[in-house]
Amino acid sequence: MQENKRYVRLGLFVFATLLVAAATLFVLGGRSLFAPTYTFETYFAESVAGLDVGAPVKFRGVLLGQVTEVFTSASVYERDVPLNKRRSYIVVRAKVTGSKGQVDQWRKEAPAMAEQGMRAQTQLAGITGQQYISLDRLDPRAYPPLPFDWKPKYPYLPSAPSLSAEIVDNAQQFLAHLNQVDLNALGRNLNQLIVTVNKKIEELPVGELSTKASALLTDSRATVNDLKRILNKPDIDETLRNVAAVTGRLRKFTDSGEIDQMGKSLDDLAQRLNAVVGDNQYDLHVIVQDLRATADNLRTLSETLKRYPAGALIGGPPEKLQIPEKSK
């Protein structure tokens, strides 16, 4: 009887342990099994070495989901296609996980985003060398969708070559272009260029240039010596000290704030003058009119003095003399 109780207790302990382990696994990652998802697939015409199931799917660095399947198009979509007509793409299926609103938004907007340039690329994850799927907006004219003849099982998202693949393609094009270059003609042109350069060097007046260079060096030495003599004079040191003293005084003057105070005083004086002129504008107008009348009177008096100097001081102008007419 006691032995049966021990078995029962052992069974309950094992059951409780399994229950706690299941709950822990559910809390750590099992909830993602019941989260809404959006699955899409993309095709690559180049190698995706290093891309495995479980690799991250990111949009400009933001984690969205993970890769769920990686296989060839011949194993699923091109089984009945002749070998020489198969596309032989690499099919990558990925799953976007998130809230119901996020997943519904991806499901609704994915076709429009693909038309506007959303593309899938393989990228290297740091120094580990592991590849992941990177989603980003590119030029749809530069990266058109790959052609295929089957109906995808999941929504299709076009792909774009990875940066490493583009570098390799550019290098291959450069090498192909080098193969097309006529190396013999290039060698002849280089030899001709070297011969021409040698002739031009031989035609240079080396002796004349050397003489002019020597004269230039002599003049430069003389100029440097003159500058040294000028700088060694005590007057230069005294001038520099005076300039430094003036500069220090100006700096102290500007730092003391007297310039700002002076500017403020000038502003106050200008405001007061404006106020005085505005308050006495009428009086100033009358004074100006009186000054004009006075100037006119002075002008009249000056003309009178010129014509009749004595009369202007004693009295009016003399009467005109009447000469008697002669009798006939």
Would you give an account of this structure?
This protein is of the alpha+beta class and 328 residues long. Helix content is 57%, strand content 14%. It has a domain at 35-163. The chain has helices at residues 2-28, 100-115, 163-180, 183-203, 206-232, 234-256, 258-279, 281-307, 309-314, and strands at 37-44, 56-59, 62-72, 90-97, 118-124, 131-137. The chain has a six-stranded mixed sheet, covered by helices on one side. A hairpin with a 2-residue loop joins strand 2 (56-59) and strand 3 (62-72). The radius of gyration is 52 Å and the shape is extended. The mean pLDDT is 78.
| Approximate shape | extended
Alpha carbon gyration radius: 52 Å
Structural class: alpha+beta
Number of extended strands: 6
Number of helices: 9
Identify low-pLDDT runs.
none
Strand percent estimate: 5-15%
Question: Quick summary of this structure?
Answer:
Helices cover 57% and strands 14% of the residues. It is built from 9 helices and 6 strands, in the order αββββαββααααααα.
Name a few traits of the molecule.
single chain, 328 residues, 57% helix
Summarize the topology:
Elements: H1 2-28, E1 37-44, E2 56-59, E3 62-72, E4 90-97, H2 100-115, E5 118-124, E6 131-137, H3 163-180, H4 183-203, H5 206-232, H6 234-256, H7 258-279, H8 281-307, H9 309-314
Parallel strand pairs: 2-6
Antiparallel strand pairs: 1-4, 2-3, 3-4, 5-6
